[in-house]
Amino acid sequence: MEEVRDHLDHGLQIVFIGFNPSIRSGELGHHYANPRNNFWRILHKSGLTPRLYEASEDGELLKLGYGFTNIVARPTVGAEDITREEYTKGRELLRVKLEEYRPEIACFVGKGVYTEFSRRTTAAWGFQEGIAPVVDGVREFVAPSSSGLVRMPMPEIIGIYSQLRKFTGEQEF
């Protein structure tokens, strides 16, 4: 199965970083394409997008200053299918991408994504204050996973993502 293409550019406000694409995302070639994934609804309800986007429009978010990548590019059924070797390689590739593109914020979509990348054992929701970022000058933000399997109430998830909108200074859509 093909990898889902990154959407990265210089000058982005936020790059959203997932574990890896789902099988459905791999089939369609777009980020967060599983219909049970709440990512696009969360972005809209948190005020980060002016309307509800479809996964097929993921490249359009570059115009809003948002990019997409993953710590591992290979689509799998679940994150538990990612190997240690893939994480090791993925950490280095992600660090290189962040150093090259230098977004203002690296938003890790799930605490596990952040802890795999940073090699830290814990993380709080939101901005990681008081600790040096892995890539100097790129602020790190940890958001809940958007998977439909997450048990956190949707209003709480939306509230965490809303912190990003407030930081970017964007007007609420």
UniProtKB/TrEMBL annotation:
GO terms (molecular function) for this protein are:
hydrolase activity, acting on glycosyl bonds
Q: Which residues form the Uracil-DNA glycosylase-like domain?
A: 9-153
Q: What is its EC number?
A: 3.2.2.-
Instruction: Tell me which Gene3D superfamilies the record gives.
Output: Uracil-DNA glycosylase-like domain
From which domain of life does this come?
Answer: Bacteria
Keywords noted in UniProt: DNA damage, DNA repair, Glycosidase, Hydrolase
Family matches, as InterPro entries: MUG/TDG (IPR015637), Uracil-DNA_glycosylase-like (IPR005122), Uracil-DNA_glycosylase-like_sf (IPR036895)
| SUPFAM superfamilies hit by this protein | Uracil-DNA glycosylase-like
Q: Per its UniProt entry, what is the enzyme's top EC class, as one word?
A: hydrolase
**Cleaved signal peptide residues:** none
Q: What is this protein identified as?
A: TDG/mug DNA glycosylase family protein
Lineage runs: Bacteria, Bacillati, Bacillota, Bacilli, Bacillales
